[in-house]
Here is the input.
Amino acid sequence: MPPGNPPRPVRRGLVTALSLCAATAMAASMAVVSAGPALAHTGHGDADHGDAFPYAPASRAAKAPVAVDPAEAATLGEEHAEEHARTRKALADVGEYPQSTRTARLGALTASQEKANASFDASEFGRFREYFPSPDFAAHIALLPTGKVLLFSFERIEVNPQKEPAPTDTIGKPNAGRAWIWDPAKGTGADAFTEKKPPVVNMPDGKNEPRPAPFFCAGHSYLPNGMLGVFGGNLGGNGGSGAKLSLVFDPWAEEWYLNKDMSVGRWYPSVVTGADGRQVIMSGQSELGWGTPTPVVERFPGAAHPVPFDKAVKPIAWGVDKLKTEAPFKWDYPHLFSLRDGKIYGLGRSVDQQWVFDTAADTRSDLPNRPDVNKSMPGPDGGEWRRNYGSAVPLPAGFRGPDSVLVLGGDRNDPNTYRLAGGKWNTEKPRAFGRTQDDTLLLPNGNLLTVNGAFDIRDYGNGPYNPNADLKFRQTELRDENGDWKLGPVQRLPRGYHSNALVLPDGRVMITGDELQQLANDPDITDNNNGSIEIYEPAYLHQGSRPQLGMVLNPTVGYNDRITVSTSTPGDVTRAVLLAPTTATHSVNTSQRHLELRVKSRGGNFLELQAPPNAAAAPPGHYMLFLLNEEGAPSKAGWVQLKPPTTTATAAKTKAKATATASGD
Here is the structure.
């Protein structure tokens, strides 16, 4: 998340050139609407956390005299200090963003969406139906096993979309998190949203100003009992400093639990749930600030606590373990996946940062370099090339779970998709064009859907912090079972950085996020609804009748056991699948998983399905169960919890031992 505060004239003696450059790059980007044509900006390049602004705008008044700060000149040199001064002047020239502009933008996007989508047959391409306000930006989302959706982000410090709304570089009370739950069963009105404030913490920033935990730009995945573990966040300052925060959200009680701090701060980490049910935490900028990614690998819960399979087990004040093996990712938010061999695949943004981790043996092995088209090109700062934030998806592979990953997006100049399978990379069929900040989802039928995207961070094709977008980034893309892509209907808003999407239990797709675009198109900036949600209905919802799923008779099931379900349409059911719920941020979605279930028997209105064979095929936790017909149309989902059969016996023995100890036996 780019820094939040525009730089003031520098009067501090000991400020690093890195911090100054990051601040200046940010300020320049925020002044884009008052600047002239975007030109290559060679002075700072990638200083703003290595991902934000490869190109900053140059002012038409670039040669007009400006007052240079003597302290900056002494530290950075006259030319560099003059560049900072011009940036501050350009920032001062940026005015406010009027409501009339927001209203007109939203009206224009609504009209262009309607016009563009008139030619798309819903039975082939799906359609967008609903668009409604939300009280949160939803930089982070999670589908809960209750069917509700958790949205969380930050308390904004700015409503002008030409400036940074997030308090990344803010130290103190304004640097705070917020969270809401949306209940789709209650519709789209205000009463469908409930605030769930994070725990109040006193961050170690020297301010002694308790505030709701600033957990934005954290990483997250699910625990086997359906709770969401959230790790890291924003300490504030220094271009992005990692917090040591460790929290759990309980979907059953709908409350947050605070845990013991991690051993290191993490800003932009990734988290994945392994086959043993423990969450593995990697990467992220440390508490020292931008440019200090941590190689430390941690695991929650630590060995002092059992893996929580039961929702009655509430992880409160639990701690992490630190593994011996390190994960020295150069850049943040790597993609992490637990595949059918039970190992964790870490796919970094650099071509040579591809590893496989065996957490049971506590080892790391190299994978081949990813064959990106632009791997030999210099990065935007002239240094190493790397992918920006883009999607990665574990591809469906039947009953035994995924054994390959498709990496796509993150490079505006490369539409190709890259598949890792059997320890080797292959270049797969391309999408229509390259995009970054995209979100690609597994659908119940096993096909893929890409939504959202941008030219770069905060840049939609017309320069950073300019809400006017290249409208192609609104267009969805669909991948069929043969791996072929086709363009689909367009969404209402362009959504790039901090955009998100997930599949709901009824088969619809929820799309949200990107606070810049939400602010730029806010129908009433004075109310509390600065966010927005739009709903996409895939083609399978427009192809006639759907199978009906009645009851899941044994919603908690062991591996390889039978799952018995009822259906009023047994003759229509040809397939049954498990689809893992999604929790995502910054195009990183480690929780996606699609598994086929074998239909073992049919009798009247009942089906017996066979659960996945083991935890490597499907890590323990909650999954959506869909019945599908021959055309691939899914039923509404029921929920199933996969749980090792030994956990019940182990829990009983532990309880008996504790009782015996308490009684003195």
